[in-house]
Amino acid sequence: MVDNALSPHGGELIERVLTGEAARQRIQSLPSIPVREPLARECMNIALGFFSPLQGFLNQADLHSVVENMRLASGYIWSVPVVFDISPQQVAELGLRVGDSALLTFQGNPLAVLEVEDIYSYDKEAMARHVYGTTDDAHPGVARTYAYQERFIGGPVTLVNYPTLHQPFADFWYTPTTMRQAVAERGWKRVVAHQTRNVPHAGHEWSMKGAWFASDSDGVLVNAVVGEKKLGDYIDEAILMGQDTVRQAGYFRQNVHMTSMLLWDMRYAGPKEAVFHALVRKNLGCTHHMFGRDHAGVGRYYDTYAAHHIFSELPPLGIEPVLSLEWWYCPVCKGSAYEGLCGHADQKEELSGTLMRRILEGGEEPDPAKFRPEVLTVVRQCASDYGFGSPFVTEQYLANRNPVMSLDPL
User: Fold this and answer.
1) Among residues 197, 293, 380, 401, which one is catalytic?
2) C-beta of residue 261 within 8 angstroms of C-beta of residue 169
């Protein structure tokens, strides 16, 4: 099953949102289930169409098909499980049965209604083995899978209380509907997506430029992941504002570059997550997606270019992969260089996270060919404004950070 470029995955953009009195009526007398923030984010992604054609959390038949065949039961490609886990005790206490509905609450306020189509258990080790290619709980995606409770509820999700996105996040928040409107307003017909969870260095900048040339695109859409953080990660504010600075400082023309965000907790599923990223960006209106080395990987679990290889095993997805090798700094070429072109590989200087950390923590002024000074200024300002003095996630940031979103009483 294949869609045309610019069409949502599955052919229809899912939107399941109730507002006002209709929302208040819908939630009356429903049993409530408090959800943790990752599940709240996924409720939003389902209801707003980021995960089209999903209309809810996977039922048992869909989950089994995704795990075993990388497809929904309908036949559409889907590579990463999106599940709602719950304990058997909660199911019993709430008296939940197939055919019931439950109110999902977040921060003590109504968020969404979950229609119970299926209550089931699943072999979590088998899920990990097929999705991540390993059962090693040192892999963060495997650890997440093993942490699921013992039951899953499958069924449609309807948003009944739209969260407020706080600054600076609100400036970068686009749903698939509003992103498609923004793309149309810019006159973009071909759009290449850039997945990131990093502050941009010159290698990132040139990988975007290379993908723009390779795809003959009208625009580059940076879609930065905002989700669970671990110590040492870049703070979300620095990622978003640093990425946007590349455009503001003129390294891209204003009409060919845009920064946005995706509320998603990385699974680090390597090639399987690469496919997932492509489908989500397809729903946002992108026609192409760039994939470099170690896309969505972690440790040594995947081949360096596993994300390149997987697309050759799949039917056309309606979004074209743009495959890239490594960009580095070459002291002979005196600038960013591409692995497929530069003849000085033996002298390359990797534009690594370690290098960026040394620059940001050491206070040194970097070579602009490695790290743009305008980006450095913004990242340091973000450290002051949002990171309690650091551009990297600390215990203090995790405990006291500016919330990405909040819910008001309905």
Assistant:
1) 197
2) yes
